[in-house]
Amino acid sequence: MTAHARRHGHALAEYPPGDLAIWVFILAELLAFGVLFAAYAITRLKNLDLFNEMQLTLNRDAGALNTLLLITGSWFVARAVAAIKADRRHGAANFLLAGIASGFAFLVVKYFEYSAKFDAGISLDTNTFYMFYISLTMFHALHVVLGMVILGFVWNKARQGAYTAREHHGIETGASYWHMVDLVWIILFPLVYVMR
Amino acid sequence: MQFKSQAVSKPYFIAALGLFVAQILFGLIMGLQYVMGDFLFPHIPFNVARMVHTNALIVWLLMGFMGAAYYLVPEESETELFSPKLAIALFWIFLVAAALTVVGYLLVPYATLAKMTGNDLIPTMGREFLEQPLPTKLGIVVVALAFLFNITMTVLKGRKTAINTVLLIGLWGLAIFFLFSFYNPDNVVRDKFYWWWVVHLWVEGVWELILGAILAFVLIKITGVDREVIEKWLYVIITLTLVTGIIGTGHHYYWIGTPEYWQWFGSIFSALEPIPFFAMTLFAFNMVNRRRREHPNKAATLWALGTGVMSFLGAGVWGFLHTLAPVNFYTHGTQITAAHGHMAFYGAYVMVVITMISYAMPLMRGRAANSNKAQVAEMWGFWLMTVAIVFITLFLTAAGILQVWLQRVSATPMSFMDAQAQVSMFYWMREWAGVIFLIGLIVYISSFFIPGEEKAKA
């Protein structure tokens, strides 16, 4: 609940959920990814053959597994919000931890995926497709890390019992950011790995 | 003024304004040299005038930031400055070093100055904006470290606020990135690559944090809006700044010999750099609209709003104009860059320092605000300088567009000097706008000498 709502005793339901500042940040992030995706799409149109050929060299299974992991992570985080609304404080903290663990598993998969590529001598300079592949996925992976940091911060407070059914603004703020990280991957995966 | 030690910022502000005058005078000299090539030759050649113009700007803004920090940090920390004596000593060291450097520029040929000051020990001279001789550069490091020590100790013993934290990160970043001015690789690509770590990561990175913190401080004081609200805005703004500005460095890496991917990174991220500046505009207007008190210092409010608008136009819009790689392919290093540089520096950093001076100076002189008459004069200064910079920017933009066309786009491209001759009319107009700017500056400075006080209303 915002300070404003707290002072004036407004009802619990608020929109958008979480802190308004995180939404400004989320929109800015989505804009940045949007521009990156548009740049990818336009460049792909100009180099269709190269992109179609190079796309086949990506590890689609790793991408699919990571999609599953992030969606699972988002489910955990959504459960955390539901749990705290029912005042189950321990449950909320545990669900947040499970969300962080999903992010960690995502990074492990990414590590093996990148290792294979880098061992094969692939870099930003290999070609335009790989320039986009590495930049887009790395940029996204950094957001997974940031999302984990935010969730970690919220988890730590939740563990100490800082949130209740009435006051769980922080959990909703963290959850909103985490869903953004998930959403971006759900667009990124088909765009770069699958669509032809 | 709540704490006695805040008064140490007064000499910093006075010296800053003195150097501001010097900067503008040398700007006018070199502006004239654009159209009268031998004006004041051989006494003040163009390269020397340019060096003094840009270095004086940087030094007076640094003086302004330091003055602002000395005023702001004790009040935010709710404690006296760790060592006011150190602050005063540093002021004199910095001022004397700056004066000696300018004298060196003016009296000795640059190459001789380099020999005299031990440039062969660690070659750092000869790079745009970082022309200072080695002793001056070392002096800057010493002053910056001692200054940071003083400020950090004050913050550590007092209240911790978001404004203090952001300001400290900005100031530490400023000092750390300056260290790259000592790194001057022989490889000219690497040289340029790291040179931007000072120049770009200052003005499009850490300086923006300093700007945000100062603006937030003054807005809290003049509007009385909840600290909670203002700090939230500040966090959003600095996050956006860092997300866009750091990788945005790439917009300087298009044509210097770095890999091609920088054209993508630079274009995409720097295209988003106007967003934090736009957020700053919204921030300033929103807070003033939601004000809970009528502060008697109307002039400071005007400067704060002016910073919000002009930084967005100068840094945001005029930066975006030529930031995309396909556009920059044609505009790189033309008068378009000069147009952007003038409005961005004025709109963001000159104005925020003057915002702080405008707010703090009357308090240090023992009044809530200057007399109505003095404030009216100050506002005349504001409008004359601001309108003049808008015209300087427009004339340089026109010169730049024409230059790009004649020299680079046309089917029969002209040589550099032929194209310069064709755009000279715009240089004359720019020079006259510069004269108006100087008049505005004189009016602004004269407002300090109009006595009297405007009392705070209950």
TrEMBL record, chain A:
Compartments in which it is found: Cell membrane; Membrane
Keyword Membrane: yes
Transmembrane portions of the chain: 20-42, 62-82, 94-112, 132-155, 176-195
Cellular component aspect of the GO annotation: plasma membrane
Residue ranges of every copy of the Heme-copper oxidase subunit III family profile domain listed in the record: 1-196
Superkingdom assignment: Bacteria
GO MF term set: cytochrome-c oxidase activity
Cited PROSITE patterns: COX3
Main subcellular location: membrane
Alphabetically ordered keywords of this record: Membrane, Transmembrane, Transmembrane helix
Pfam families the UniProt entry points to: COX3
Family in the record: Belongs to the cytochrome c oxidase subunit 3 family.
Protein name: Nitric oxide reductase NorE protein
Source species: Sulfurisoma sediminicola
Lineage: Bacteria, Pseudomonadati, Pseudomonadota, Betaproteobacteria, Nitrosomonadales
UniProtKB/TrEMBL annotation, chain B:
SUPFAM superfamilies hit by this protein: Cytochrome c oxidase subunit I-like (SSF81442)
Keyword Protease (UniProt): no
The protein's role, per its UniProt record: Component of the anaerobic respiratory chain that transforms nitrate to dinitrogen (denitrification). NorB is the catalytic subunit of the enzyme complex. Shows proton pump activity across the membrane in denitrifying bacterial cells. The mononitrogen reduction is probably coupled to electron transport phosphorylation.
Catalytic activity: nitrous oxide + 2 Fe(III)-[cytochrome c] + H2O = 2 nitric oxide + 2 Fe(II)-[cytochrome c] + 2 H(+)
Subunit: Heterodimer of cytochromes b (large subunit) and c (small subunit).
Pathway(s) this gene product operates in, as recorded in its UniProt entry: Nitrogen metabolism; nitrate reduction (denitrification); dinitrogen from nitrate: step 3/4
Main location: membrane
Enzyme Commission (EC) number: 1.7.2.5
Regions that span the bilayer: 12-36, 56-74, 86-108, 138-156, 163-183, 195-220, 232-255, 261-288, 300-321, 341-361, 382-406, 432-450
GO molecular function terms listed in the Swiss-Prot or TrEMBL record: cytochrome-c oxidase activity; heme binding; metal ion binding; nitric oxide reductase activity
Protein name per the record: Nitric oxide reductase subunit B
GO cellular-component term (any): plasma membrane
Provenance organism: Sulfurisoma sediminicola
Cytochrome oxidase subunit I profile domain location: 1-458
Keywords recorded for this protein, A-Z: Cell membrane, Electron transport, Heme, Iron, Membrane, Metal-binding, Oxidoreductase, Respiratory chain, Transmembrane, Transmembrane helix, Transport
GO BP field: aerobic respiration; electron transport coupled proton transport; respiratory electron transport chain
Top EC class for this record: oxidoreductase
Pfam families, alphabetized: COX1 (PF00115)
Family: Belongs to the heme-copper respiratory oxidase family.
Lineage of origin: Bacteria, Pseudomonadati, Pseudomonadota, Betaproteobacteria, Nitrosomonadales
PANTHER family: CYTOCHROME C OXIDASE SUBUNIT 1, NITRIC OXIDE REDUCTASE SUBUNIT B
Alphabetical list of InterPro entries matching this protein: Cyt_c_oxase-like_su1_dom, Cyt_c_oxase-like_su1_sf, Cyt_C_Oxase_1, Cyt_c_Oxase_su1_BS
Membrane topology according to the record: Multi-pass membrane protein
Presence of the UniProt keyword Ligase in the record: no
Location within or outside the cell: Cell membrane
